[in-house]
Amino acid sequence: MDAAFTAEQDEIRRTLREILGKRCGPDEVKAAVRTAAGHDRELWQQLARQLGLPGIAIAEEYGGVGCSPADLALACEETGRALLPSPLLATAALCVPLITALGTDAQRSALLPPLATGGLTAALAVSGPALATALALTGEDPSGQWSGGGRAGGVQARAVTADAAGSGRRLYGEATQVLDGHSAGLLLVAAHTGGFARSRTQLFLVREDAPGLVRSRQAVLDETRPQARIELRDVPAELLGDEGADVLGALAATGRTAAAVLAAEAVGAAGQALARTVEYVRQREQFGRAIGSFQAVKHRLADLYVRVQAARSAAYYAAWDPDQGGLALAQALETLRVTAGEAIQLHGGIGFTWEHDAHLYFKRAAADELLFGPVHRLRAHAADRAGLFADPATAPVGDSAASPVTSPPAPTPTPTSPRTSPPPPAQEKVAV
Known about the structure:
Elements: H1 7-23, H2 26-33, H3 41-51, H4 69-81, H5 88-102, H6 105-117, E1 122-125, H7 131-134, E2 155-159, E3 169-179, E4 186-193, E5 200-207, E6 213-217, E7 227-239, H8 247-283, E8 285-286, E9 289-290, H9 295-320, H10 325-346, H11 358-372, H12 375-386
Parallel strand pairs: 1-4
Antiparallel strand pairs: 2-3, 3-7, 4-5, 5-7, 6-7, 8-9
């Protein structure tokens, strides 16, 4: 394994950091999120033209750059530094992998080229606060009950006679907390089909101009992650892929890749929050000296630096091996939350003001945990997948990895020697 970045990757990072440094300052971010789109459309088109950012992980045959998801994660580390409000996550990290994995040849040829150029954006719509479950980040539901379960609620699909208005499917129901759902030109809607007895979850394509589609932007904690409520009132839709496609498997695979991208994004935000704090404590004086010279402040910053570097290493490893995305995301979100909290504290009174941008980093950490799962559930699911807490009695015979580890009995003390307790076991060092 070669962990070094290529010259192309370094160039993408350098160019992206330069563009965002000029066009995505704190004031520009606050102005962009208050527009109707929730992001700077001109900046989005510039990133698409100069870097091919929306199509960085799309194959060249569909007009993309043809890079790997690891390159997308490295790019998102830079967008996380600037807290860039953009449809990049919803389009490139969530919808593009699903269209690539499940779509027919005709659907890929029709949808991926405009997505790669940035002319079309997409959003994944699932019912209720079930995005983390749908992506198998905090747990797995083989039955797909999170999409409606054939009962009231969620989004339901019914078959109708195909006509010019649709492809034989009509959707009804609603989905909340849809990332960039108010401005996306294409919606990937997870819906239940087949009634209650034979129900299953499938994905459907819904265009922004579909009759019966109602979208409304919601007030959210983190304005840099705009969300919408999607109401579907007998909306014509097109099935993504074939009837027998493994939708839940594709969603789980997309969740692993998205977790690595989100981890890199959170690491970028944490690194920038730490850098701004270090710069501030070097300038802020108290008792005639910079507060950064106080030993207590140095210790706190040193702890944050270790946290950020450890989270960055985990995020880079997850970009290379997406199966580790859940653990990397948990560590990155925790690091961002702690770093942003310390940044507010070390900035003193100015850190609590609405005008300062320290609160934006803290809101990003809190909002991402609400959307993609709290840290403890991300880690618990990763532990379940790894079988760390499996019952030894259910392990197959001869499986040494699952067999219980027993320690030798303690020696019986002699009558002539005092009773002593064995020394505690040495703590193992876990490499990140």
